[in-house]
Design a protein that fits this description.
CATH class of the largest domain: Alpha Beta
CATH superfamily of the largest domain: CofE-like
Mean pLDDT: 91
Number of helices: 9
Number of domains: 2
Largest sheet: 6 strands, mixed
Structural class: alpha+beta
Low-confidence stretches: none
CATH architecture of the largest domain: 2-Layer Sandwich
Distance between the termini: 23 Å
Strand order of the largest sheet: 1-2-8-3-6-7
Number of strands: 8
Strand content: 15-25%
């Protein structure tokens, strides 16, 4: 059984509300659409669990198991996608919808009308010095799209990965296999969000704070799953 240690550059313990929590990343094989995510969690995570644990799983690993990683070569951006991409804020922390291929997938996932409305509202927001309105209108499906980066684990460095389908249901299915609460999370170097939870016992606000520095990493760590455990 593997020894669970923090990823390089990440702290193993974080304090939230005066309570210390261990964040234990779990290394797996490279997850593909040949895998069932609950099987992967049961194989790699379950042997490490103790009562009181909560398991958190990266949304990208769930998406990859659902065949929602689309090779760049299979995406053919329309002219509208290329046009809209020119107005996207280019973040140093990720591609987002900043390339035609990710924008094309946003148009397909959310609908052209919704993306155009979001773009219009976003443009107005920028005029008055407000950011973030685009994703408030476009919604989860647009915000959860991940583009390829040089540091992304192959073969996903040449794919656009969409957000997972039915994250609450997926978390519930995994929870039944593991016997503990499960959350599907989207964490990066800017923030963290809980996309799905197995039940109401999952404190989403606490979990977001506990994962604010992205302890799973997002490059070659190959640790798409983790355990949150009280340090006391």
């Amino acid at each position: 059984m593997q020894q669970l240690t923090p990823n390089p550059g990440k702290n193993g313990v974080i304090e939230v509300g005066g309570v210390g929590y261990l964040r234990l990343p779990v290394k797996t094989h490279v997850i593909t659409d040949a895998d069932h995510i609950a099987d992967v969690a049961e194989h790699y995570v379950k042997p490490h669990l103790i009562p009181g644990d909560l398991v958190f799983i990266s949304e990208k690993s769930v998406s990859c198991s659902q065949r929602r990683a689309i090779p760049l070569k299979d995406i053919h951006p329309r002219p509208l996608a290329r046009l809209l991409t020119r107005f996207v804020y280019k973040s140093p922390y990720g591609i987002g919808l900043g390339i035609p291929e990710t924008m094309e997938m946003a148009l397909q996932e959310c609908g052209t009308g919704r993306i155009l409305l979001a773009a219009g509202v976003s443009a107005f927001g920028k005029l008055i010095g407000r950011r973030g309105w685009f994703y408030q209108i476009a919604g989860y499906r647009a915000e959860s799209i991940d583009g390829p980066t040089p540091y992304t684990l192959p073969p996903y460095n040449e794919c656009v990965v969409l957000g997972p389908e039915n994250p609450d249901q997926v978390a519930g299915d995994i929870s039944l296999r593991l016997g503990c609460p499960v959350a599907i999370v989207d964490a990066n170097d800017l923030n963290s969000k809980v996309l799905g939870a197995s039940d109401r016992s999952v404190d989403r606000a606490l979990l977001c704070k506990a994962l604010k520095d992205n302890p799973l990493g997002q490059s070659s760590q190959q640790t798409p799953m983790g355990i949150l455990r009280r340090a006391d």
